[in-house]
C-alpha cells in the first residue's frame, strides 16, 4: 500500500517519534509490511515542483491513494480561509488540499491528537481556528463531516497522542496493509483499541503508592501523582506503561504526571497541568468508572493502612525504605 | 529558466513549512524572499494561563527542538522567580538537552541534507555512486544506520525524560527523576555505543582527531567515514563559496554549568568576539504579517495581520541585534566558542555550516560523557520552585539550530506576556524596515540556477545548510 503523509498545523513531533521505532526500525518495518511512502515531508527526496506534480496526479485520480496520513490540526483561520497554513508552492491552503484528497484515499489516518481532535494547536483562544480532521475537540465533525467515510469504509482513524507512540502508528499501518482493522477495532472516538483499551494507569510503576494513596507533593518525589500533581493516568487511554517509550520510559516513569494526551481537549484541563483541582480537599478527577462513594471509602481505608515504607518513599526522591519480605517459614 | 521568478515549495527535508520566492537574472538568484507560511499562535495560547503551563505547552511548539523549548521555558520561569535549580538537576537537564541536539545534528546530516547529492543532476560526478549507496532517501545505508543509532541514543531520554519528544522532566528547579547508580552506568553504556557508531560510521576515526582539525584545508583532507564523503563532494562542488554568510554570529551559550558554558555565549562580528548583550535587540514587523511596533521581546506582542497585507510576505518576525541580522546555529556556536576550525570557516557557506555541525557532533560527545560521569547518584536533582505570582524572566538556550529565547511576564499568578524568538526566526527572517534581508535571503543571492530548473539544487543546498526549523520559527 502507498502512503501520502502531509504535515498540517502541528509540531512534526509524531514523525520524530515514529522515527524512534525499534525492532525493526521504521524503514525496515514499513518496507517489510509492503508499505511505501508516495511522499513524506521529512523523508522523501522530492521537493518543490516534483511534489506539486505528484499531488496533482493524485488529485486527478492518476495515482490511486491507499492511505492519507495527516499529522497536525487543520487551520481554518483567518475567517475560514485556511490561509494560516498555505501548502507552500501551491497557492492553496492545507485545509483545501485535505478536503480534496481525503475522499480520494482508501483510508484516512489522523496521526496525533492535533490531527484527530485539534489538540495543542487549538489551545487557549485557538488563534488559528484549528480543528481535527473529523472531530473538533469532543464534537464529531471537524474539517471533514462526521458522516465522511473514505473508500475503505472506516471513519478517520484517530491515532491520538501527543506525540503518538511509534508502535501505535506502525501497527495501525500494518493492520491496514493486511486489511485487518475494522470498525469494531476502534473505540467511540475512532482510536484503535489495541492501545485505547488500556489505561495509562495499567503497569504504572507508582501503582503501589496509588493503592495506598501515598502521594507525592512535589515533582521529584516517588509517590502517586494523582492527589496533588495533576496525574490523570487512571482516566487516560493508552498502553504507555505496558509498552515503554524510548527504551524504558513513560511520563509517570519519568516522574511527571499523565495529562491524558490521547483525549480530546486535553490541552484545556481548566487548571494547571501539574496541579490537581480539589473541592474541599478532595480531588475532583476520580477514576471515571468507579462510584465516588466507594472510591472515597476505599481511599480513606487504604490511607489508614499505608505501610511506613510507602508513606516515607512517597515523599522521597529515591527509595529510602526498602521492602522487607517475610522470611520463608522454615 | 534563468530569468524571471520561481516559487519553491513544498520545501521538504526541513522541519515544517517553507516557501522560497526567487527573482532570477543572468542564471543566478538576484533576490530572494523567504516565507514561513504557517501560523499557530502559541504566544497567544499562553496568555492568562498558570506559568507552569508553559512547561507543557512550549515543548509542543516543535517536535524536533522540543527539549530546547522546554529548557528555555524552565529557565525563563526560574529567572522570573529568582530561583536556581539544584546543580545536579541542571547538569542532567544539560545532558538531556545535548542528546536532543546531537540527535538533530545526526538527522540533519543523514536524512535532510545529504540526499540531495544523490540527484541525477550529479550523475557524472565521481562520488555519485557512493552518495547513492549511502544517502538514497529512506533506503541508503547511512540513513538506516543513523535512524538506529539515534533511537538507541534516545534510550537516555526514555530513562531520564520519560519520553521524547514532549517531556515534562525539565523544571525550573531541576529534573523530575533522580537517577541511581545503575542509571548512571546505563547512560554511560548508551553513550559508549553512540561513540562507537560515530567513530565507525560518521567520522571513520576518533572523534578527538576530527575535533583537533584546525584549518579549512586540514578539514578538506579528512577522507574517512560519511563525513569524508561529504568533504570530497564539498571540495568538488566548491560548497564553501555557495551561500556564504555575512560572518555575523549569535550564540546564547550551550550547556551552562557552575563554571560557565560548555560552548560559550557571545556575538561575533567584524572578525571579533563581543559579549552577549540583548539590550539592542528588536523584532521588526515591517515585512511580517504582524501588527504593532517593532519591539524588544520583553515588550513584544503577537497580533497576526489577518488581512495578510500585500507589502509583507511571511508570518516570521525579523529579529535584529543593534540593527543587524544575525546568523545562529552550530557554526555560530563553534566560532564564538573559539574553535580554530570554526574560526577559519567563519563567514563561509554551505561547507562551513555543515562542517560546523559535524565539528559540534564530534565535540558534543565529550560534553555528554563528562556530564554523565559527573552524575552524583546521592545528590538531589530538584530544588522545587514555587509558582511565580509576579515577575518577569528570560530563558536563553542553544537549540541545535541556534539561539532560542523565551521572555515571560507574570502578573497575579498568570502569564501576562510570553514572547519566543527561535533560531530560524533569526536565520530565515524577512526583510526589516531598512530593507535588509534576513541571513538566508542574503545567502541565496548569487546561487546559480541551471536552465530548466524549477527547484534549483543550489538553492536546496543553501537552504538546508541552515537546518531550518520552520515550526519553531513562527510558533
TrEMBL record, chain A:
Residues 198-273 form the Cytochrome-c3 hydrogenase C-terminal domain. It is an enzyme of class 1 (oxidoreductase). GO terms for cellular component: [Ni-Fe] hydrogenase complex; cell envelope; ferredoxin hydrogenase complex; membrane. [4Fe-4S] cluster 2 binds at residues 201, 204, 224, 231. Its cofactor is [4Fe-4S] cluster; [3Fe-4S] cluster. Residues 11-175 form the NADH:ubiquinone oxidoreductase-like 20kDa subunit domain. Residues 309-330 are annotated as: Disordered. Coiled coil: none annotated. Its EC number is 1.12.99.6. Residues 309-320 have a biased composition (Basic and acidic residues). It catalyses: H2 + A = AH2. [4Fe-4S] cluster 1 binds at residues 11, 14, 114, 162. The keyword Cell membrane applies. It is found in: Cell envelope. Keywords: 3Fe-4S, 4Fe-4S, Cell membrane, Iron, Iron-sulfur, Membrane, Metal-binding, Oxidoreductase, Signal. GO terms for biological process: anaerobic respiration. InterPro entries: Cytochrome-c3_hydrogenase_C, NADH_UbQ_OxRdtase-like_20kDa, NiFe-Hase_small_C_sf, NiFe_Hase_small_N_sf, NiFe_hydrogenase_ssu. [3Fe-4S] cluster binds at residues 240, 258, 261. One of its GO terms (molecular function) is ferredoxin hydrogenase activity. Belongs to the [NiFe]/[NiFeSe] hydrogenase small subunit family. Heterodimer of a large and a small subunit. PANTHER family: HYDROGENASE SMALL SUBUNIT, NIFE / NIFESE HYDROGENASE SMALL SUBUNIT FAMILY MEMBER. This is hydrogenase (acceptor). It comes from Rhodovulum adriaticum (Rhodopseudomonas adriatica).
From TrEMBL, chain B:
Coiled coil: none annotated. Pfam families: NiFeSe_Hases. GO terms for cellular component: cell envelope. Fe cation binds at residues 65, 472. Ni(2+) binds at residues 65, 469. Keywords: Iron, Magnesium, Metal-binding, Nickel, Oxidoreductase. It comes from the Bacteria. One of its GO terms (molecular function) is ferredoxin hydrogenase activity. Its cofactor is Ni(2+); Fe cation. Mg(2+) binds at residues 43, 62, 420, 475. It is found in: Cell envelope. Belongs to the [NiFe]/[NiFeSe] hydrogenase large subunit family. This is Hydrogenase large subunit.
Amino acid at each position: 500500500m502507498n502512503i501520502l503523509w502531509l504535515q498540517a498545523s502541528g509540531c512534526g513531533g509524531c514523525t520524530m517519534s515514529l522515527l524512534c521505532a525499534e525492532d525493526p526500525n521504521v524503514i525496515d518495518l514499513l518496507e517489510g509490511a509492503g508499505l511505501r511512502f508516495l511522499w513524506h515531508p521529512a523523508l522523501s527526496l522530492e521537493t518543490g515542483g516534483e511534489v506539486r506534480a505528484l499531488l496533482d496526479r493524485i488529485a486527478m485520480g492518476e495515482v490511486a491513494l491507499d492511505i492519507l496520513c495527516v499529522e497536525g490540526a487543520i487551520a481554518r483561520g483567518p475567517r475560514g480561509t485556511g490561509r494560516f497554513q498555505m501548502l507552500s508552492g501551491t497557492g492553496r491552503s492545507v485545509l483545501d488540499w485535505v478536503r480534496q484528497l481525503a475522499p480520494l484515499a482508501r483510508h484516512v489516518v489522523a496521526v496525533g491528537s492535533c490531527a484527530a481532535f485539534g489538540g495543542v494547536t487549538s489551545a487557549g483562544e485557538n488563534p488559528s481556528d484549528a480543528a481535527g480532521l473529523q472531530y473538533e475537540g469532543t464534537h464529531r465533525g471537524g474539517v471533514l463531516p462526521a458522516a465522511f467515510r473514505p473508500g475503505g469504509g472506516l471513519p478517520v482513524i484517530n491515532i491520538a497522542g501527543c506525540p503518538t507512540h511509534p508502535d501505535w502508528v506502525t501497527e495501525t499501518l500494518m493492520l491496514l496493509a493486511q486489511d485487518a482493522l475494522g470498525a469494531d477495532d476502534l473505540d467511540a472516538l475512532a482510536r484503535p483499541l489495541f492501545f485505547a483499551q488500556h489505561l495509562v494507569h495499567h503497569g504504572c510503576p507508582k501503582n503501589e503508592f496509588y493503592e495506598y494513596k501515598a502521594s507525592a507533593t512535589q515533582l521529584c518525589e516517588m509517590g502517586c501523582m494523582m492527589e496533588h500533581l495533576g496525574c490523570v493516568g487512571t482516566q487516560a487511554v493508552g498502553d504507555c506503561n505496558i509498552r515503554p517509550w524510548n527504551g524504558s520510559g513513560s511520563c509517570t516513569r519519568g516522574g511527571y504526571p499523565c495529562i491524558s494526551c490521547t483525549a480530546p481537549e486535553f490541552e484545556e484541563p481548566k487548571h494547571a497541568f501539574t496541579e490537581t483541582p480539589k473541592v474541599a480537599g478532595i480531588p475532583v478527577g476520580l477514576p471515571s468508572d468507579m462510584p465516588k462513594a466507594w472510591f472515597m471509602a476505599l481511599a480513606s481505608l487504604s490511607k489508614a493502612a499505608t505501610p511506613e515504607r510507602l508513606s516515607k518513599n512517597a515523599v522521597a526522591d529515591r527509595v529510602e525504605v526498602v521492602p522487607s519480605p517475610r522470611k520463608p517459614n522454615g | 529558466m534563468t530569468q524571471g521568478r520561481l516559487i519553491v515549495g513544498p520545501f521538504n527535508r526541513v522541519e515544517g513549512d517553507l516557501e522560497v520566492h526567487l527573482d532570477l537574472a543572468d542564471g543566478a538568484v538576484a533576490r530572494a524572499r523567504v516565507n514561513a507560511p504557517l501560523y499557530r499562535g502559541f504566544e497567544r495560547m499562553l496568555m492568562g494561563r498558570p506559568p507552569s503551563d508553559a512547561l507543557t505547552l512550549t515543548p509542543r511548539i516543535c517536535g524536533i527542538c522540543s527539549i530546547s523549548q522546554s529548557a528555555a521555558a524552565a529557565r525563563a520561569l526560574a529567572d522570573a522567580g529568582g530561583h536556581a535549580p539544584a546543580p545536579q538537576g541542571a547538569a542532567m537537564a544539560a545532558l538531556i538537552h545535548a542528546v536532543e541536539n546531537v540527535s538533530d545534528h545526526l538527522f540533519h546530516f543523514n536524512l535532510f541534507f545529504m540526499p540531495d547529492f544523490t540527484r541525477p543532476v550529479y550523475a557524472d560526478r565521481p562520488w555519485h555512486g557512493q552518495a547513492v549507496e549511502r544517502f538514497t532517501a529512506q533506503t541508503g545505508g547511512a540513513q538506516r544506520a543513523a535512524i538506529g543509532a539515534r533511537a538507541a541514543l534516545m534510550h537516555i531520554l526514555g530513562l531520564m525524560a520519560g519520553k521524547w519528544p514532549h517531556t515534562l522532566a525539565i523544571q525550573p528547579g531541576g529534573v523530575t527523576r533522580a537517577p541511581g547508580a545503575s542509571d548512571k552506568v546505563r547512560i554511560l553504556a548508551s553513550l559508549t555505543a553512540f561513540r562507537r557508531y560515530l567513530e565507525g560510521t560518521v567520522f571513520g576515526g576518533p572523534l578527538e582527531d576530527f575535533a583537533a582539525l584546525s584549518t579549512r584545508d586540514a578539514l578538506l583532507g579528512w577522507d574517512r567515514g560519511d563525513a569524508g564523503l561529504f568533504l570530497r563532494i564539498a571540495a568538488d562542488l566548491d560548497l564553501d563559496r555557495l551561500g556564504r554568510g555575512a560572518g555575523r554570529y549569535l550564540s546564547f551559550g550551550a550547556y551552562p554549568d557552575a563554571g560557565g558554558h560548555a560552548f560559550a555565549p557571545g556575538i561575533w562580528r567584524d572578525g571579533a568576539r563581543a559579549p552577549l548583550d540583548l539590550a539592542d535587540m528588536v523584532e521588526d514587523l515591517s515585512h511580517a504579517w504582524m501588527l504593532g511596533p517593532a519591539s524588544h521581546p520583553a515588550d513584544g506582542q503577537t497580533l497576526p495581520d489577518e488581512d495578510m497585507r500585500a507589502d509583507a510576505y511571511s508570518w516570521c518576525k525579523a529579529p535584529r541585534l543593534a540593527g543587524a541580522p544575525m546568523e545562529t546555529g552550530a557554526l555560530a556556536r563553534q566560532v564564538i566558542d573559539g574553535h580554530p576550525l570554526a574560526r577559519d570557516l567563519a563567514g563561509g557557506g554551505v561547507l562551513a555550516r555543515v562542517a560546523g555541525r559535524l565539528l559540534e557532533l564530534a565535540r558534543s560527545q565529550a560534553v555528554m560523557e563528562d556530564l554523565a560521569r559527573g552524575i552524583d547518584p546521592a545528590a538531589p536533582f530538584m530544588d522545587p520552585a514555587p509558582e511565580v505570582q509576579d515577575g518577569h524572566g528570560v530563558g536563553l538556550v542553544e537549540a541545535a539550530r541556534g539561539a532560542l529565547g523565551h521572555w515571560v511576564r507574570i502578573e497575579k499568578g498568570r502569564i501576562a506576556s510570553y514572547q519566543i524568538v527561535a533560531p530560524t526566526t533569526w536565520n530565515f527572517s524577512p526583510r526589516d524596515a531598512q530593507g535588509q534581508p534576513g541571513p538566508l535571503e542574503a545567502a541565496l543571492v548569487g546561487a546559480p540556477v541551471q536552465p530548466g530548473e524549477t527547484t534549483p539544487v543550489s538553492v536546496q543546498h543553501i537552504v538546508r545548510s541552515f537546518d531550518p526549523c520552520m515550526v519553531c520559527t513562527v510558533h
